[in-house]
Write a structure and sequence with these properties.
Elements (H helix, E strand, L loop, with lengths): L5 H14 L4 H14 L3 H13 L6 H17 L3 H25 L3 H18 L2 H17 L3 H18 L2 H18 L2 H17 L6 H18 L2 H13 L6 H14 L3 H16 L6 H17 L3 H17 L3 H8 L7
């Protein structure tokens, strides 16, 4: 395309669409860009719409690129109102994607600002799916920050919209997030009820969960049983989660393994498991401070059980620093209570 071979570019893109469906979204966007270059705006809209419709799980960055392409096509054909709306939708997708990135790197205050900006924009545009997606993402973040009532309200909002739009797959994924919120708030019975209802909900809509989704369900189920003191069930489900080898869950799962071993009185195994999680986190750049704080706190409990008081105090101090840096003061207070166990 850049050296003027548009027809060859189109032929190459058609082969991508046939040979590698997973790349179809990018190929449709590229076809739209080529059509824009040649002032074939109606065709450009078709390709950008195909990109947007390719999958319900489309990555926000690609959605943003498709909306940007549609905006340009509308602008060049002088439909400025439509061009502005598409540009705003592109901005919405970019704001939400930035929020996701910052949340995953535990930059919670910055992520909250971006999610709120995306949510406001989605509401201004009447973009119902965008409202639901952002409320779903923001609900988890607010739970991490200890705002459980707001988190549950945001989840309710997301669930209602997904149901109204006929998006049961998104609804099921949001239910997993609701279970996470319940677990974080200490309402493990509610978390377990949500998770146990998921198979029936999925079957009713002929939804087949991916292995990654099954791993998340198993992990959250293990957390719920651990919170309820059912160690055998917790061990069963965390083992199931680990067998799927979902990289995103390795740290959380081994932290749960450590807590299970501690409950079983196997202090050495508990220490090995939690130190493994910290080794993984130390290898990240930058490390996730939220997970570091959680795992350090579990290590402190292990060291207290082993009678290593001074070492435990040092670990508690490190956990507190992690949570203070994130301004998660409810977690700071929870961590400081471990000092009571040291007298």
């Amino acid at each position: 395309r850049l050296i003027g071979h548009s027809q060859q570019a189109l032929q190459d893109l058609q082969s991508v669409l046939r040979a590698a469906p997973v790349l179809a979204v990018d190929a449709y966007i590229a076809q739209g860009v080529l059509a824009n270059d040649e002032s074939r705006f109606a065709e450009a809209h078709t390709h950008f719409d195909q990109a947007l419709q390719q999958t319900a799980q489309i990555i926000e960055v690609r959605r943003s690129a498709a909306h940007k392409g549609k905006s340009w096509a509308y602008c060049m054909s002088s439909d400025l109102d439509a061009a502005l709306r598409e540009a705003q939708l592109a901005r919405y997708e970019a704001e939400r994607m930035q929020g996701i990135i910052l949340e995953r790197s535990a930059q919670y205050n910055e992520a909250t600002q971006l999610y709120n900006a995306a949510l406001t924009l989605a509401k201004e545009l009447g973009h119902q799916e965008g409202i639901a997606n952002t409320a779903n993402s923001l609900s988890i973040l607010r739970a991490f920050q200890g705002n459980f009532a707001e988190a549950k309200a945001l989840q309710t909002q997301a669930q209602e919209i997904y149901q109204r739009l006929g998006m049961p797959g998104r609804g099921c994924n949001a239910q997993i997030n609701l279970a996470l919120i319940h677990n974080l708030s200490g309402d493990h019975d509610a978390a377990l009820a949500v998770l146990q209802n998921l198979p029936a909900a999925a079957a009713a809509h002929q939804i087949i969960f991916s292995p990654q989704t099954v791993a998340h369900i198993n992990y959250h189920t293990a957390e719920a049983y651990l919170g309820l003191g059912d160690i055998a069930q917790a061990e069963h489900f965390v083992t199931q989660a680990l067998q799927i080898e979902e990289e995103e869950l390795i740290v959380d799962c081994y932290r749960v393994v450590s807590e299970i071993k501690l409950a079983q009185g196997d202090v050495a195994a508990a220490e090995n498991a939690v130190r493994f999680t910290l080794q993984i986190l130390d290898g990240q750049s930058p490390p996730n401070l939220y997970l570091c704080g959680y795992c350090e706190r579990v290590l402190a409990r292990v060291l207290i059980q082993a009678g290593q008081w001074e070492a435990a105090k040092a670990v508690i101090a490190r956990a507190i620093v992690c949570f203070q840096e994130l301004e998660l003061f409810h977690e700071v207070e929870k961590t400081r209570r471990l000092l009571d166990d040291l007298g």
